């Protein structure tokens, strides 16, 4: 049960981060830069939470406690990587909208 909890934490925080990043882009597009920056900061906080969950799994494995590879874990990792990339791109979009 603990593993599913960790995996769902990664998925949940990653999904929230991606949603915040997308919303940040929309606010930047509407020239609401302060709100865009706030949402981008929230996205970064969510990614830190997701990354913390992932780090816990990595540390356990480094101590010799093997993690069973499951499709759900792969799915969680995919969400984390996608959200991280999306947040990075959102940051670039916000900067570009800020210059317009």
From TrEMBL:
Any single Pfam family the record assigns to this protein: PTS_IIA
Domain of life (superkingdom): Bacteria
InterPro entries: PTS_IIA_lac/cel, PTS_IIA_lac/cel_sf
Entry keyword Transmembrane helix: no
Residues modified to Phosphohistidine: 75
Sections of the chain in a coiled coil: 22-53
PROSITE patterns attached to this UniProt entry: PTS_EIIA_TYPE_3
Keyword terms, alphabetized: Coiled coil, Phosphotransferase system, Sugar transport, Transferase, Transport
Record-linked PANTHER family: PTS SYSTEM N,N'-DIACETYLCHITOBIOSE-SPECIFIC EIIA COMPONENT
Name of protein: PTS lactose/cellobiose transporter subunit IIA
Species of the source: Virgibacillus siamensis
Upper classification of the organism: Bacteria, Bacillati, Bacillota, Bacilli, Bacillales
């Amino acid at each position: 049960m603990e593993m599913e909890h960790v995996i769902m934490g990664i998925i949940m925080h990653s999904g929230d981060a991606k949603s915040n990043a997308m919303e940040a882009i929309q606010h930047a597009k509407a020239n609401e830069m302060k709100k865009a920056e706030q949402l981008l900061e929230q996205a970064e906080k969510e990614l830190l939470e997701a990354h913390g969950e992932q780090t816990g799994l990595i540390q356990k494995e480094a101590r010799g406690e093997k993690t069973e590879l499951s499709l759900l874990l792969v799915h969680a990792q995919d969400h984390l990587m996608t959200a991280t990339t999306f947040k990075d791109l959102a940051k670039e979009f916000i900067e570009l909208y800020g210059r317009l």
